[in-house]
Specification:
By secondary structure, the chain is mainly β. The protein contains 1 helix and 11 strands; from the N terminus they run αβββββββββββ.
Length: 232
């Protein structure tokens, strides 16, 4: 049996902040648009930067409610091995399909994403953390988000709103390259925001990130997030 002290050691809690920008730019006279999101995340208790993400993509608008996307992501993470830390990069290819619809006056979005992750293998060399090749891992993500306009308008173009979302992460194929399990993590999020126009939203909220590590390791990260959404 695992003792209570050992169980507590394997279950950690952290506090972080994320700053995110999600952008879509239409390509005139086509069914295509450019996707770009960029994010910065802090370490525990905001001591330093943990993660930088740049994620471009090309959208194809199947119709007004469906979007298919293919893209690339550069993820720069602070890694630690034997108390030696350094930033190492992960490269991803990703594909996704979005379905939008309404539940009454509430816009709902379903997002299905698959990632091919080229994760750098960290090694300590002369007391420095370096990347020695990479492991290829695969992950599926299902994202569900709803926006509740406070004014109750069917066509929401301006005003305050509440947002709720959840995203489930599942590993498949080479799970040994990550935590050795199918379940990777879950992110639940609640926010309030303001739509300044059809083109721009700004919101702030709380995100609960539950991460399953190797073995019995578990982490809960309490995140304060500020996010902007630009649509041109």
């Amino acid at each position: 049996m695992i003792s209570a002290a050992a169980a507590n050691a394997q279950q950690t809690r952290q506090f972080s902040s994320w700053l995110a920008s999600f952008n879509t730019v239409a390509i005139p006279k086509t069914k295509f648009s450019i996707h770009m999101d960029a994010q910065v995340r802090s370490t525990h208790e905001w001591r330093e930067f943990q993660t930088f993400i740049v994620r471009p993509g090309l959208n194809y608008h199947v119709n007004k409610n469906m979007i298919a996307t293919v893209g690339y992501a550069w993820v720069h993470n602070l890694r630690a091995v034997q108390d030696v830390t350094a930033y190492l990069s992960e490269h991803r290819i990703w594909e996704q399909f979005i379905v939008n619809h309404k539940l009454g006056f509430i816009p709902i979005q379903h997002r299905f994403r698959v990632e091919q992750r080229f994760i750098g293998t960290p090694v300590v060399n002369n007391n420095k953390l370096e990347k020695d090749g990479h492991e290829l891992a695969h992950r599926f993500r299902y994202f569900l988000r709803g926006i509740v306009p406070f004014n109750g308008e069917q066509t929401f173009t301006k005003g305050a709103f509440a947002a709720a979302q959840n995203e489930l992460f599942l590993n498949f194929a080479n799970t040994d390259a990550v935590n050795g399990k199918v379940f990777d993590q879950n992110r639940a999020y609640l926010a309030v925001g303001y739509r300044f126009s059809r083109q721009f939203d700004l919101e702030a909220g709380y995100l609960n990130q539950y991460i399953s590590g190797r073995g019995a390791a578990r982490s809960t990260v309490h995140v304060l997030q500020l996010a902007g959404y630009l649509r041109l």
